[in-house]
Every structure is written in structure tokens, then in C-alpha cells.
Batch of 3 targets.
Target 1
Amino acid sequence: MGQATVAGTESAVAGSASSSEKDFKLVGYSNFLRKNPRTDRFPVLGFHHIEFWCGDATNTAGRFSFGLGMRLSARSDISTGNTIHSSLLLRSSSLQFLFSAPTSSSDPPPSPQSQSPLPSFSPSASHRFTLTHGLGVRAIAVRVSDAFSAFHISVSHGARPAFPPADLGLGFALSEVELYGDVVLRFISHPSPSPHSPSFLPGFEDLPTPSPCLDYGIRRLDHAVGNVEDLASAVKYVAAFTGFHEFAEFTAADIGTAESGLNSVVLANNEETVLIPMNEPVHGTKRRSQIQTYLDHNVGAGVQHLALATDDVLQTLREMRAKSPAGGFEFMPPPVPTYYVNLRRRAGDVLSEEQMKQCEELGVLVDRDDQGVLLQIFTRPVGDRPTLFLEIIQRIGCMTKDEEGKEYQKGGCGGFGKGNFSELFKSIEEYEKALEAKQQIAAA
């Protein structure tokens, strides 16, 4: 078994920043001109799965299953002969969440007959990860045409290797490079699905679909957002080894409040189906940046939130809110009532009167760009620390056809909620202020 590494600090580029990094400047949302140069260094076919490292996979996966309407689809644990770790896969349409926890206190000796279907999993690294970060995302996995080639091309263009290519059997392969902090970008390649191939990875036991099937309407991972300490070096590092292009950018002037702000860049693959935004804190504001608060509690860079797309955010939200009191996920407070006064002007040509009424009742934020409309809402942090949270979104518009005439929605339709960032910031600021007030009372 290979040895995974956990650094615990953000080091997007080794050594001092180059002159080009020092000259890195954002032009802001209004001046940014979107273009797609199609510069991927290797074919990236889409998101494959997200792996969370946690202390107990069974209970954590159960909470996410209940809260998000994702069914348990596959497993590898003691019941399947895996004595190294427990890994449970939740699935909702194309969205796949893998929850892994060590069942061994130390790393087993390397062996070609390893009982683990995830050769990159290390019990000792997982223990350190959870101790350092709490519940968090260890791997953003993307499907590539060849995990061996993607790894070698990435490393030749500056990527720091995390786990060398491994043949998983049945035509499946895995490799990993460092992304930011203790998060890895995992490359998965596999043949076209067949009746005899595993639905996830070799070594995982596929589980039957229950009836009725648990489903709140979540369909796919839209984007995975990371918080980093230095945006320039992080963007240059990731763009250099992937070839991903800049899809969007925001500055504190675009999306901040009077009290705090951030800078953000979104990187995308050729097809703009893999969107990786990264944020950095802005210093010198009245309040410490919320990104800095994340970095402090997470002890370094990491995944801040995952945006989960649904075809009907109102229905999905009703299902999720019904589960909130019984152990599901809680949501950030809604915006002030005046937020919805101009909703008809912003989206009245797309949303019905009933939909706009429900958006206000459920606290859904509504934004749009020159191509489509975005409906979004954010949960409170999902773990003990004020770090990782979830975003539930629906994109409306931007439909086009591929070469075969099949209709699909362009990536990032409706933008990333530029018009809603200040509302989100205000909501998080109020949440942080409430926590600070309780801490002061407890200390008194």
C-alpha cells in the first residue's frame, strides 16, 4: 500500500513566488471576458466522486444519506473483507459521495494482495487528517481517459505527486496529485460501463436499490470550492498542470460587504463540466475575512463547499428542510425581506409568480447572468467546525446541443451568484457574530 501524505499547510508552489505570480492581478467580474481556449493537457471527462475522510464512515454517511436523499450504493468494509478501512458510497443520479474511515490504527505492510480497493488510503494519514481538519474532503476525483497518462503529464508540468498510478483491475486505474492543503485531485479512468463491471470501483460491493428509492432530486456535482491562503500561486499551480482555463473571477469590490470580503477565481476544463473555484481572504477589513476564519479552523487550505445541482431546487429544499429537525442539515438564515422586492424585475421572465413566492418562503437566493438564472441556498457548516458547508442550486437556461444533437446545459449557466455573495456574507457574518457572543458569555 502506498503512503498518503498529509501536510497540514498550504504550499501551492514550493519556494518563493515567481515574478509572474507577484504580477497576478484580478480584473474583477465586470472587466473579465470569458473565453475558452481549450487548453486541457489531458482529457477530463467530468467529476467522478468526492471522498470525505472522517472518524466513523457509517454514521457520517448515514447523516448525509438522510439529509440529502442519497442512497447507499456500494461499500467496502469488514463485511466485504476489508480490514483496513470502511468506505461507504452514497449516490444520487451522477453525484457520488464516498465516506472513508480507518478501521486499523496503523498502515499495513505493502502487499499486492491488499484487501483495500483504494490503494492510496492510509490509516495513519487519515487519522492525522481528521485530527487536523475534522470532517473534510480528502479527494476531488475526476474521470479522465487515462489515469496513468494524466498523472505523468501533470507531474511533468509541476504537479506534486500524491499517489502514483495504480491498476485497480477490470480496466480501472487511479492516481493522485496534490491540489491544495491536504486535498488531492484524484484521476480515475475506467472502460465504458457494462453489465459485468462494478458501478463504482473494483473491490466495492454493489448494493441493491431499495424500494422506494431515497431521492430528494439532487442530480450532480456542479462545482467544488477551495479556500487557499494565496490565490495567485494556487491558481497558477493548478492551471499549469491541468491546462484548465479561467472561467470567472470576483474581487472584494464585486462581492464583499462593508465588513469583509474575498477574491475568487474559477478554473474549468475544456467542456466546462469540471469547475474548481478557489478563494483567498482579503485582509484589512473591519472584520476578519470569513475565508481566514475557515483557514484558521481548518488549519490550512481545504474544500470550503460543494455545490449540488438539482432540477427543482424548491422541491429538493422542501425535502431537506423537512429532515432538518430530525438530524438533517440546517440552512443559513434567509436574506432580509427587502431582498425579494425586486425579484420580479430580476427573474420575472423566467420564474412564475408561485415560484417567486416559494423562493421567498424558503429563503432561496436568485441571481442571473447574461445567459441564465441561478437559484441557490447554503447550509450551515455540516460538521463540528465552521468550515465545510453545502450549496444546493438549480441552473435555468443555456441549453444547447452537442455534435450528436443531444441537448445539454452549458456549464456555469446563471453564473456563481455574484449578486448574492453579499447576502451570503451578511448571513455568515451574523452566524459568526452569534458564535462570538456565545463564546464571550461562556468566558464571562
Note: The longest strand covers residues 44-53.
Target 2
Amino acid sequence: MEGWDTSTKSALTKIPLLTTRAGPRDGAAWTQRLKEEYRALIAYTSMNKSNDNDWFRISAANPEGTRWEGTCWYVHNLRRYEFQLQFDIPVTYPATAPEIELPQLDGKTHKMYRGGKICLTVHFKPLWAKNCPRFGIAHALCLGLAPWLAAEVPILVDSGMVKHKDDEATSAES
């Protein structure tokens, strides 16, 4: 955790670590893992709300908990930019991290590939591997998606690749 800013360290220490090593093919063990995932997500969401840092909504899109969907947002220059968020839990989970997708941004940045999946290979994947099975979905959002949004959204907005919804509505009316 050396090299991380204090707010990231603080957030990470408050997200519960997971203990069950199970993936979608592991039956009852997967159900136990999903319960741990939900506990960690609830803790992370509660912490964000209490720190006035609410930035995503997510839920399982199917009863098995293998498909997740929601929204995430980033505030830049006092304007909120909101994006659809989705990912599938890989069959080799938790050994393999989920590939987080922001389909609206597909093709708008080089730090993205195959259908809007954000690039987390260099920095996040080794961290995930080192902390398997203790890391889960909440950790992927905290250490993967949050820094990616902070690095990419300002560049995308400043370059004109992403427009605020109010600007899009104004140009459509013209």
C-alpha cells in the first residue's frame, strides 16, 4: 500500500476482505461468496455515502450473481458525467478479476479495449492476483474503476470525446 494516497488507504482498509474461495461453478460455496460480496459492497457504499463520495450504483443483473449492471459517475469541473457500468464474473473467479465495462466510452480512449472494457492489466491485475481471494467486487471498484475514471474522464471531457448531457441536449435542440 506504499505509494497510495491516504484516502485510498483509508477506503481500502474499511472494505471487508472476503474469505471464501469460490466461483460461479461452485454451488453452495458460490452462494457464500456472494453473501460476502454483498457485505463488502454495502460497507463500501455506506462508507462512500458517509464521506459524501457516492459515485456508483450496482446490483446483480441475474439471480446467480454472475452478471452485474449499474451506473457510475465522475464529477469534473462541477459537472457530473454518468456512465453505464457492467461486467460478468469470470468462471475462474476469484482467481481472475472481472473485466469492468463502460460501453458508452467504447473506442473513445486507448485505455480501453474490446467493447468498452477498461484497461486494468498493468496496475490492477497483479494487485488482484496477490490478494486473491480476499479482494472482491468492491475492491475492483475502489482500486480499479475509481482511479481509471479519475485519470480518464477529465482527459475525455477536455478533448471533447465526452460531452455533458446538458451540452448534448443543447446541441440537439439547435
Note: Residues 94 and 132 are 6 Å apart (CA to CA).
Target 3
Amino acid sequence: MGQSLSEPETSKQSAFCQNDYYKVGSSCMQGWRMHMEDSHTHILSLPDDPGTSFFAVYDGHGGAKVAEYAGKHLHKYITRRPEYAEDVKHALQHGFLDLDEAMLNNEALREHMAGSTAVVVLIKDNRLYCANAGDSRAIACVDGRLDVLSFDHKPTNEKERERISSAGGYVEYNRVNGYLALSRALGDFGLKRNAQMLPTEQMVTAYPDVEEREVSESWDFLVIACDGIWDVLSSQAVMEFVQEEIGQGIYPQQICENLMMRCLAPDCQMGGIGGDNMTVIVVCFLHGQPYEELVQRCKEAVAKRQASTKKRRSHSNRSHESEPESSHTPPASERAGKAGGNGRLEDESSGSESERSEELAAPLLAPNANGKDGVVESTTAEPEAAEKASSSSTEHTVTSSVEVKQKQKESAPASNNESVDESSEEIDLK
């Protein structure tokens, strides 16, 4: 994990925006790490393709430079690809490679031993494309159920290990050449120097996998986050957490903050789990309806799941009562003994390849360093004026290389292309 602070930095940069189709919230937090190296972007309408939305999280390592550059520029490289109008998937794949090549040719970036994951969700004409390089992740809730949109790129994956070996590298301690814990990334040019190999064949490549989905009115929300979240909770557990929060009428930026506090380790002795930088974007699908419609759908889905769980447990208890005492299932505390101290399952979830629910995990809100429940003080209701102002906010990018400032209240109305949260850094992408 490297060096850690003596106390976690829990101040947050949060923002929200919305239009008739999406209500979006985001937040990032430095946590126990010495520096903040994440970046994220949410744009409701791309300047080069109005009506197309773009959401992305970049988890930097070895420094923030690559994540910052990607946050400012990746969407431009994608939309300017010649095949973008007809083949968005290939535009995404080659846009990632174009950005990587541009950084390689940038003297200020080329010599940095830094890199970044990138997970992007682009929605165009009711078609969703999720491009991923690394171990940040995107999931969706569709008709109340989980849909995993990306797959983690780890050196231990058979396909990834084969490419690493073919390029002259090796996997040791579950890391590329013994030190990089992911097998695809932007940057990391020290691991892309085999002159005999194409960019897609290097031991670490920026070439993303792309998943496609058709968006219908059954889509509820997306969660896009760095591995600081997924190392602690499975995709199913995150989906259920967000679903329950929406069902209580909480707004997405507050949900992001609550989720990060849920995942924050109570101390820095957790082996890195819950001690990483954290960044989360929650995208709620409105489908032209008020947010309250989604709140009601999530509330009904939660009630249905809870009733089903209660029924299964009741049936299980009746079955156990008829068995000899020696054959009873061990108590939950014993069955959960192999989970991490902050609710992390022992088998690391890697996209939909090994997802399972965390029914036996810790309570939804873990205590923070002060011994109190990890819920930020702000209430679920926002001032009506701020909520109305958010509808005109279409573009937001955060590049968090400096110390995270204390989150300010969202009280001032936003102009057409400004984030409502004035504490977030603004970048003009036009």
C-alpha cells in the first residue's frame, strides 16, 4: 500500500448535474493515501456530439499526471476518430490507444513512471458502450437487478498472463514484473517498450474491452468507481447499497459520499483494503420522469428482495429445526470469518466472472475513525433552488492531484456548463 497518513483525509469533492434523462452525482476522497491520484469526468452532452453523454473514472498510480490528462482529453480522442459516427466500439478502442500514444510523445509525461486505469461509459442514441482498461469498474441496475458492464484486468487472468509472457514479461506476486497489480492501463510506458510488439500486444496495454447494451426504460442507475470501492464490496453489494439509498430518496452525490464512508477502513492496518483513494459516479436514469419515480421503483425492488430473503431464511430455519444439532450450519459469524475486516469477500470479484452477494458482510455503514456511523451530515433533501439549478449543468471534470478541499455546500446556482459544487476544479473542454 505504501505510506499512509496517520488519520484519513475524509473531506470530499462532490458535484451533481441533471437533465431530463439523467440525474448524476459524483464524489472523490483522498482517504488514507498520502496523495490524491484519481480523476473523473461526467458530461451530459459532449461538445463534439450533442446529445451523447460521457462518464468516466480514472484511477492513477505512481502519480496523478496520467489520470489528469485522461480526464481532460480522452473523450476528445474518441469523438474525433474517423469511425466514431458508424462504429463507436472501435472509436473507443482506438481512442484509448491514440491518447496513450499522445502521452508517449509528450516529453513531460513520457518519463513519468505513472499510469492510470480508465473505465468509460458513453451513451449515444439509447446505446450504452462501456470501455475499460484496468481494475476500475462499472455496473448497472436494470429492472432491479445487477448487470456488470466491465471486467477487471488482473495479471493473474489467463488471457492477460499469456500476453504478458509473450511480450517478455512475467507475473510475480500477482503483479506484472512483480510490481504492477493490473495488466491494462494508460501510461506505464516502462512496461510498453517491446519494439517487436504492437500497442495491443505489450505486456501492459491501453487497449480496452468494450461491452455494449441497449438502454430501455427498465434501466435504473449506473455506478462507476475505482478499485478503492470494489476491493471492499462486491458488485452485487454496491448495487444493493445504492438501490437502498435511492429508495430512501437520497440524492446521488450524497449516495457517493455515503458509499465511500462505508468502504473507508477504520484504521490503516487493513492490508490496503479500504485505504485507497476513492472516486464514485452514480448516474440515475430518469427517462423523462421525476426522480421520485426512480425512488419508488428502487423502494419496491428493495422490499421485494427483503421479503424474498426473509422467506428463504424462514424456510432454512424450519429445515434446521428438523435436523440433529450436530448437522446445523455454523453461525453467520463463523461463515463470514474469511471476509475482510471491512466486509470484503476473500475471493476478489472480477466483473461478472465471480460475483456473489455479500449477505454475510458487515453492516451497510461501517464506523469511521471517530467511532460514529460513516454518514455525512447533510440530509437527503437538497434546497429546491439548488435542485432546479442543477438541471442546466451539463459538464464536469475533476482532476484531483492537489489536496482535496473541504466540500462546500451547493447553494449557488450553476451556469450552463458549470458544476453546482464550487469546490470542484472546473476545466473548459470546449
Note: The chain has ten helices and 16 strands.
